[in-house]
């Protein structure tokens, strides 16, 4: 189902892709230091490759005309785009030939004549757009520019051979709008952009609105009439609504514009605006959560169903036929499900299904025939694996906020299945990135991996997380390393008081902001954690803001108001105070750092400088650098190698189970810059 969630979140997806047989894996012997027994010992050890390796298939789609199925699948070990006739799925052929980095995002051209995908180089996030003609198989670079990041500004139901794209090849800060002919590759400039963060187009591919950040930290919305941008905005937001209010598109006839809107309320509602009169009508709102997703009619663009996600996701259908279809699916599918692709005549859907404790499946749903045929199982090797239930929980912060959170326990630890183990187990506090993002309910490969190794895994939506209203986000303003961190500490104390874990057996781990939280945990509260794993986390907030990607420049005021303004004495002092780098001498517990050399968001210097500081104080640290990665590790060999090091690092620290490192590091580009001796088995793996 189409997501209408906020696209400004800067969190990383810690993904990985590859595969092996569980029969060949043995657990490495480890001992605990607290006398805890490991309840997971009786459960089979799930191989890393089964959890993080290439899925058999993923990202299934139907062509708009309903004639073709497409998906991502490995070709020579690298994820590529495949397709087959909808009536002959076995006649599959690979349409792309990526040999190094996996293709992770693709879509159909509206006219069904080509497949489109985006790809960067080495994780630099300069994504270019590529097209493959499905008749000839010929591939074209549709945006053939260097140091350029493409954005999609508009697609159309009526104009099927063209789309609107944004290109920042003229000025890296701003994306000029071009009309792209998908079949000839011709680019025509529509709007030069010297000030705006984005644009909204209608179904005629005409620009209708320009979005520009304002001095208040919010956004101004400027109408565009006959190609001319108005001198004054028709609507505006301030800082508090900046992450929860945005235009969400037009109906095909252009008469209705949808908004996700929190103005005048706490949580973001779904609102329809009559374009001619300006009148607005609230379609849906929820006291606990922002609007999270929507289904729109493929032909008319009208909203047919919407969802909210507080602890779990709840869908409500407006259209009776859609309600009937969703009810029919709900009767036949266990766990969570959603619609990820629809034909233009809406006769067929691609439906994903997350059974929660079994591998996800994807189906082709024929609405007219009322048949549900399995398309693929993403990870069939996980069939029968000891996957664990995720428990949604609410945790109270010390100042009265409710923190929606998720807890997964090791196999064999919770006979009553009530979310409380029979005896304390070691715990990993797994912190999400962003911080303007959120953790969700459902299958989570990191939860399953760490639980299988014998750890409780707790993910916390701390203040500043999105999805729970603007007040919850604003409660995190200027609170990096303070109240946002207090929420994490309160969650750890909750787990200790509940009997989930012991005070001396908690590790902290995360990527991006979660990496920062790891560094903050080991510097600001060094007594609280036994060890930490930092993945692409910033150590110095001052240098982080000074080196943001140029295309984030229009949003810098929001960063300054939510983190601290380095252009003021007070803001600079706050940023220095909240930067773990300046407290590196307080680190007393083991630390593992993973970094991509090409990361455009959190530069390599963020990891280099805290490692140098720790070395200057004689503090041990293990530092792993990937020269061909960016903000997170996309290449399968690299991600699996870092996870191999991580689980052996955690076993060294907490005494959980670990699959031996083996040849994973040698098969990757990993450079062990520092500290191989602090991870069990790492020195031996490098020597061999």
TrEMBL record:
A Pfam family assignment: Peptidase_S9
Signal peptide residues on this chain, from the entry's feature table: 1-27
Region annotation (Disordered) ranges: 23-65
Biased composition (Polar residues): 23-37
GO biological process terms, semicolon-separated: proteolysis
Peptidase S9 prolyl oligopeptidase catalytic domain: residues covered: 445-656
InterPro entries recorded: 6-blade_b-propeller_TolB-like, AB_hydrolase_fold, Peptidase_S9_cat, Peptidase_S9A
Keyword terms of this UniProt record: Hydrolase, Signal
Molecular-function GO terms, alphabetical: serine-type endopeptidase activity
Source superkingdom: Bacteria
Protein name per the record: Peptidase S9
């Amino acid at each position: 189902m189409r997501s209408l969630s906020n696209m400004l979140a800067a969190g990383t997806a810690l993904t990985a892709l590859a595969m092996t047989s569980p029969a060949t894996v043995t657990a490495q012997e480890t001992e605990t230091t607290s006398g805890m027994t490991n309840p997971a010992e009786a459960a089979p050890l799930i191989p890393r490759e089964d959890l993080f390796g290439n899925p058999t298939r993923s990202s299934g789609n139907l062509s708009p005309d309903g004639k073709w199925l497409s998906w991502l699948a490995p070709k020579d070990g690298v994820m590529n785009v495949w397709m087959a006739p909808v009536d002959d799925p076995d006649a599959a052929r690979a349409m792309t030939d990526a040999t190094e980095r996996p293709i992770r995002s693709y879509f159909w051209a509206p006219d069904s004549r080509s497949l489109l995908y985006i790809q960067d180089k080495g994780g630099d996030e300069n994504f270019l757009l590529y097209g493959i003609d499905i008749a000839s198989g010929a591939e074209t670079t549709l945006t053939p520019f260097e140091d350029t990041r493409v954005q999609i500004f508009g697609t159309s139901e009526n104009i099927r051979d063209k789309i609107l794209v944004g290109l920042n090849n003229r000025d890296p800060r701003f994306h000029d709008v071009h009309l792209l002919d998908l079949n000839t590759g011709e680019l025509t400039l529509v709007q030069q952009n010297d000030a705006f963060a984005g644009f909204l187009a209608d179904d005629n591919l005409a620009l209708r609105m320009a979005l520009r950040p304002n001095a208040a930290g919010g956004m101004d919305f400027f109408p565009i009439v006959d190609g001319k941008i108005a001198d004054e905005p028709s609507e505006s937001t301030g800082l508090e609504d900046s992450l929860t209010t945005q235009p969400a598109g037009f109906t095909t006839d252009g008469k209705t514009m949808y908004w996700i809107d929190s103005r005048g309320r706490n949580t973001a509602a779904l609102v329809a605006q009559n374009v001619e009169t300006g009148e607005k009508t609230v379609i849906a709102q929820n006291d606990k959560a922002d609007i999270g997703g929507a289904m729109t009619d493929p032909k008319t663009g009208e909203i047919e169903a919407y969802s909210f996600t507080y602890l779990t996701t709840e869908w409500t259908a407006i259209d009776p036929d859609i309600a009937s279809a969703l009810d029919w699916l709900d009767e036949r599918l266990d766990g969570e499900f959603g619609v990820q692709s629809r034909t233009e005549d809406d006769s067929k859907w691609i439906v994903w299904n997350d059974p929660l404790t079994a591998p996800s499946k994807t189906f082709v749903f024929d609405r007219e025939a009322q048949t549900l045929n399995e398309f693929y199982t993403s990870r069939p090797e996980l069939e029968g694996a000891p996957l664990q239930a995720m428990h949604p929980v609410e945790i109270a912060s010390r100042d009265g906020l409710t923190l929606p959170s998720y807890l997964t326990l090791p196999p064999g630890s919770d006979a009553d299945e009530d979310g409380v183990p029979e005896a304390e187990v070691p715990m990993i506090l797994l912190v999400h990135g962003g911080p303007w993002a959120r953790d969700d309910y459902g299958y989570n490969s990191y939860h399953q991996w760490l639980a299988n190794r014998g750890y409780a895994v707790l993910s916390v939506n701390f203040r500043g997380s999105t999805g729970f209203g603007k007040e919850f986000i604003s409660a995190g303003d200027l609170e990096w390393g303070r109240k946002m961190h207090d929420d994490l500490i309160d969650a750890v104390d909750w787990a200790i008081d509940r009997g989930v874990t012991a005070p001396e057996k908690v590790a902290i781990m995360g990527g991006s902001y979660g990496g920062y939280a790891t560094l903050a945990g080991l510097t600001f509260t060094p007594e609280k954690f036994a060890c930490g794993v930092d993945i692409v986390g910033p150590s110095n907030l001052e240098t982080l803001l000074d080196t943001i990607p140029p295309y984030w420049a229009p949003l810098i005021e929001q960063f300054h108001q939510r983190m601290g303004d380095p252009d003021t004495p007070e803001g600079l002092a706050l940023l220095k105070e909240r930067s773990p780098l300046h407290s590196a001498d307080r680190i007393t517990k083991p630390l593992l750092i993973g970094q991509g050399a090409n990361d455009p968001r959190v530069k390599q210097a963020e990891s280099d400088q805290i490692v140098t500081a720790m070395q200057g104080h004689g503090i041990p640290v293990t530092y792993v650098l990937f020269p061909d990665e960016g903000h997170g590790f996309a290449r399968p060999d690299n991600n699996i190698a870092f996870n191999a090091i991580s689980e052996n690092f955690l076993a060294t620290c907490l005494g959980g189970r670990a699959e031996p490192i083996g040849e994973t590091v040698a098969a990757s580009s990993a450079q062990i810059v520092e500290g191989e001796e602090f991870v069990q088995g790492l020195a031996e793996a490098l020597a061999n």
